[in-house]
Structures are given as structure tokens and as C-alpha cells.
Amino acid sequence: MKTPIDTMFNNVEEFFASPANTEEKAWGVIHDFYHLVLTYMEAHQISKADLSKRLGKSRSAVTQMFNKTPNITLKKMIEVADAIGMDIHITSPQVPREQARPKRVPTLPIAPQDDLSQPHTKRSVVA
């Protein structure tokens, strides 16, 4: 007869033995991102107050971003990384690093008169 502790141990073993689902993987990526950002900020003596100024957000908004249940977009991740001067890349252990990076990231030059701070303005491409 199994005791409750044996059953609990088996449940924990099964949980960690099963592959992560999509939501668990997403939370893992978000957790890794926050860890990288906080580690970089500490190493470069950037406070959350500094980050809030750089992002143009309130200190409480930045604190909530790190302390509440996170739901952060890839765009927001890039915005935060750029604000602290950290470059981030997506990699996979299944793809060798030299094959994972494109030789050149295609970019479109933006005309100088365009206001990039306005998300809904039509931007013209310089030929």
C-alpha cells in the first residue's frame, strides 16, 4: 500500500519528467529574460528608477513589470533591453551558433522627416 508521501513523490517525479508545454516554455523564456535584464542592470549599476526614466514609464510600472505576473511581448522585451543598452538574441541548443545568426539583418532606411515615436503614422522608405 502506497503512502501519501510516496504518491506525492511520484507526482513530482512525473511532473519534472514530462516535457514542458507551450505555456511553461513561454514562462521559462520570460523568466530567463528578466534574469538577464536584472543581472545586466546590477552589473552596470542601473536602478529600476533609471530604467523607468529611460522607458518614460513610472517607477511603479517598472516595479510591477518585474514583480507581478509578467505578460510581456517580444517588442517590450526589446524596448527594455535597448533602454539599458543590452543586446539580446534568440538561440536554440539544436542549432549551432554560427548557423543561428543571419549574416545581415535586413533593414529599411526611414526618411528623416518621419516621426518614429508615433506608431500609427505612415512612414516613407528612402530609396
TrEMBL record:
<dbReference type="InterPro" id="IPR001387">
    <property type="entry name" value="Cro/C1-type_HTH"/>
</dbReference>
<dbReference type="Pfam" id="PF01381">
    <property type="entry name" value="HTH_3"/>
</dbReference>
<protein>
    <recommendedName>
        <fullName>HTH cro/C1-type domain-containing protein</fullName>
    </recommendedName>
</protein>
<dbReference type="GO" id="GO:0003677">
    <property type="term" value="F:DNA binding"/>
</dbReference>
<feature type="domain" description="HTH cro/C1-type">
    <location>
        <begin position="37"/>
        <end position="91"/>
    </location>
</feature>
<feature type="region of interest" description="Disordered">
    <location>
        <begin position="91"/>
        <end position="127"/>
    </location>
</feature>
<dbReference type="InterPro" id="IPR010982">
    <property type="entry name" value="Lambda_DNA-bd_dom_sf"/>
</dbReference>
